[in-house]
Amino acid sequence: MLELRLVQGNLLKKVLEAVKDLVTDANFDCSSTGFSLQAMDSSHVALVALLLRSEGFEHYRCDRNVSMGMNLNNMAKMLKCAGNDDIVTIKADDGSDTVTFMFESPNQDKIADFEMKLMDIDSEHLGIPEAEYHAIVRMPSSEFARICKDLSSIGDTVVISVTKEGVKFSTRGDIGNANVVCRQNTTVDKPEESTTIEMHEPVSLTFALRYMNSFTKATPLSSTVTISLSSELPVVVEYKIAEMGYIRFYLAPKIEDEEEDVKP
Amino acid sequence: MGIKGLTKLLADNAPKGMKENKFEGYFGRKIAIDASMSIYQFLIVVGRTGMETLTNEAGEVTSHLQGMFTRTIRLLETGIKPVYVFDGQPPELKKQELAKRYSKRADATEDLATALENGDKEGIEKYSKRTVKVTKQHNEDCKRLLRLMGVPVVEAPSEAEAECAALCKSGKVYAVASEDMDSLTFGAPRFLRHLMDPSSKKIPVMEFEITKVLEQLELTMEQFVDLCILCGCDYCDSIKGIGGQTALKLIRQHGSIENILENINKERYHIPDEWAYKEARQLFMEPLVSAPDEQSELKWTAPDEEGLIKFLVNENGFNNDRVTKAVEKIKAAKDKSSQGRLESFFKPAVSSSLPIKRKETDTKTAKESASKKSKPPAGKKKKK
């Protein structure tokens, strides 16, 4: 038996919009600690990890650890039917092959039930080790989205380099090249507009912009984004979700050739 | 060629050991390919109409070069890093099979002559395909072409498939690609089919994982090899009247060919005289391959543009523009193969949660294994 009641039903809609283009089918895992998802894109280059902690729900009941395989496009279709202020409840019975989304309007005068079929998904779960990153950049999420969008009109890849001066995003394409440098900036009035850089070591990595652009679909979830970089690890692009969790995107870097260090 | 009916047998009995993947999903992967098999296919298929094949000015066949060139570029463009493995000396046991093929080819040559006399078009195409033979020259041509393209070439001490499997076992490559199911019998951990099919056919790549196959068949590797021998392989005869399904049943029941021979009804099944199944098994289990530390480093380099033009355009009559364009493609492809994969950084972990949805297959297998558990004690009672 599973029953999760989320007052800010809106959050779930935004989460789905953020992941449905990257992953088509995924298993949602539900345990006593929270509601989570881990899935890779079909080419195994990017991974999304979502966590909504149980404390963030108004009511949270999950008797045993279960996973529910869902088609994210279909799930998004159903959630689109919820109003922006609706309370969303996710329900499933043990052994059932469906999940129910219940939408209640804030003044309780309208209640809608949407039942969706579950699916069997063979998905590989990856263990993601806790790591110390060489550099952590925190910046306004809208700024990051803008940079990715702008650069992708010029090139296919972005080089993100962090130095003492700041963080530099650069690309190169047939028509020319582009560089955007963001400096540390903590003097602004609003903390969500500041840019902070924690750097232990300078780092420079290359990524496919296509994926970065897909990650920025999560921008409505949070006003800031955290980008963690290490030279021998995938980048982590994290959006916090209103005190209750996060959505993290991992992206494997491009390796400038003559490697032989990467396994086949 | 290969193991008779193994694909179907696996599809029926080990569906979880095989899965279909998109061709594009293999970018960045190093893949060992059995070259001789590919060349043979190219000679049969590429640019053939009836008796006519692609030739250069001197009248020598160039179908193999054409095929090798375009297919390899397709792999490179996707970001796959191919390594081609060529056959060395055939093992003693295969000589019989090769002699058979030789005589078949001789028959086909005769048939072709008759078909030509009678002007039988279908017959001409059919028999001329059967007369195809991969010569040393074809192999050398392809090696030269591949080296010019910057693709590594490996010469196997004996069977190419066995060497491919060894490369895969030692982790030098991600998987083995072939159309010949032998690769699985040689123990290639991961085996791909249809990787070399033309893109126009739109056939997805079929990936086999040996550990999962064995798990589902409930066999050990040695038993799997015995199963393949019973199905019919290149190295020895099989028992007439025993096909894949029966072979699987017998192996599961008796555990090895030796035990089967003791228990089988010899009136009903004719066991071949001087049946060399032990030698065949030996060959599959311990084939002649390079030891892991003898395997050469695999390196993918930039293509030699001048060399390619000289070889393909000047010597073999390829269109100059096409070759130049193709070289551009190879160069551009370098960028694609540089994209890393998450699996190289994160290792698979086991998820603790069970699906909320009841799986029908799960309950079924649970029942099956339960009934199996109850069988052995019952058997023991009878013996007492």
Automatic annotation (TrEMBL), chain A:
SUPFAM superfamilies: DNA clamp (SSF55979). One of its GO terms (cellular component) is PCNA complex. It holds the Pfam family PCNA_N. Residues 1-125 form the Proliferating cell nuclear antigen PCNA N-terminal domain. It is found in: Nucleus. Keywords: DNA replication, DNA-binding, Nucleus. GO terms for molecular function: DNA binding; DNA polymerase processivity factor activity. One of its GO terms (biological process) is leading strand elongation. Residues 127-254 form the Proliferating cell nuclear antigen PCNA C-terminal domain. Belongs to the PCNA family. This protein is an auxiliary protein of DNA polymerase delta and is involved in the control of eukaryotic DNA replication by increasing the polymerase's processivity during elongation of the leading strand. This is DNA sliding clamp PCNA.
From TrEMBL, chain B:
It comes from the Eukaryota. GO terms for biological process: base-excision repair; DNA replication, removal of RNA primer. SMART domains: 53EXOc (SM00475), HhH2 (SM00279), XPGI (SM00484), XPGN (SM00485). Residues 147-219 form the XPG-I domain. It holds the Pfam family XPG_I. Its EC number is 3.1.-.-. Its cofactor is Mg(2+). PANTHER family: FLAP ENDONUCLEASE 1, FLAP ENDONUCLEASE FAMILY MEMBER. Belongs to the XPG/RAD2 endonuclease family. FEN1 subfamily. This is Flap endonuclease 1. It comes from Spirodela intermedia.
